[in-house]
């Protein structure tokens, strides 16, 4: 998703997986409202890591520029596996 232009946009997307690994790479500046549910496994969300059973997390991350400029509501659901949500660095 790092190549999506979120400027002035409100985007919402859901990702559902039964098993496996999911890595989402986001632009530096998009505001993100994230809901992550992992039944068994781990979630690394913007550098915060949790693992175990029923790893449910909700968080807001406004990127390097602070609030404004575009937003993404992202809902991730994983049965068993790993979820990683990060931002591009350059």
Q: Can you tell me the overall shape? A: elongated
Largest sheet: 4 strands, mixed
Q: Tell me the number of strands.
A: 4
SS strand fraction: over 45%
Please estimate the helix content: under 10%
The rounded Rg comes to 13 Å
Strand order of the largest sheet: 1-4-2-3
Summed over residues and divided by their number, the pLDDT gives a mean of 94
User: What structural category do the secondary elements indicate?
Assistant: mainly beta
Instruction: Say what oligomer this is.
Output: single chain
Q: State the distance separating the first and last CA atoms.
A: 14 Å
Tally of alpha and pi helices: 0
Q: Stretches where pLDDT falls below 50 for ≥5 residues? A: none
- What's the helix-strand series? EEEE
């Amino acid at each position: 998703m790092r190549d999506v232009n979120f400027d002035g946009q409100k985007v919402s997307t859901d990702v559902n997986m039964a098993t496996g690994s999911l890595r989402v790479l986001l632009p530096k500046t998009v505001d993100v409202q994230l809901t992550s549910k992992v039944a068994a496994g781990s979630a690394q969300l913007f550098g915060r890591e949790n693992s175990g059973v029923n790893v449910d997390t909700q968080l807001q991350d406004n990127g390097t520029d602070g609030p404004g400029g575009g937003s993404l509501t992202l809902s991730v659901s994983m049965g068993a596996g790993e979820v990683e949500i990060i931002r591009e660095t350059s």
